[in-house]
Amino acid sequence: MRFVHGQLAWMVATALVLTLLGSLSYELFFVSSLIGLLIVTELTAPFHVTPTWRRRLLWLIGIGLVGFGYVVVRRILEILPPEVLPW
Predict the structure, then answer these.
(1) What distance in Å separates the CA atoms of residue 77 and residue 71, rounded to the nearest whole number?
(2) What is the pTM of this model?
(3) Which of 7, 73, 75 is nearest to 40 (CA)?
(4) Which domain holds residue 22?
(5) Alpha carbons 27 and 71: distance in angstroms, whole number
């Protein structure tokens, strides 16, 4: 339950801070939540025994990293001038 509470607190704080800064978007919230997932996963990791549910987090982290790669590629394509792109 520490993991769930920590992740939920991180996501609520992220949404609140992004709203106060006036820059709340799906991409920023997703990337910030992924960073929070990685941090909370490391901070709540047990030292000696790994529960089975924590092994399933690897799939969630992998999907999050694929989504992060998609966001980065999309942002790079937005920055590049049109004459650089082959299509």
Answers:
(1) 10
(2) 0.82
(3) 7
(4) 2-79
(5) 7
Contact call for residues 61 and 46 (beta carbons, < 8 A): no
Does residue 84 belong to any structural domain of this protein?
A: no
Question: In angstroms, what CA-CA distances link 41 with 35, 57, 61, 66, 68?
Answer: 10, 8, 10, 18, 17
Number of folded domains that form the chain: 1
pLDDT tens per residue across span 9-48: 999 999 999 999 999 999 999 999 999 999 999 988 888 8
Structure tokens at 54: 């924590």
Q: Across the chain, how many H-helices and E-strands are there?
A: 3, 0
Cα–Cα distance, 34 to 52 (Å, whole number)? 21
Whether 87 is in a domain gets the answer no
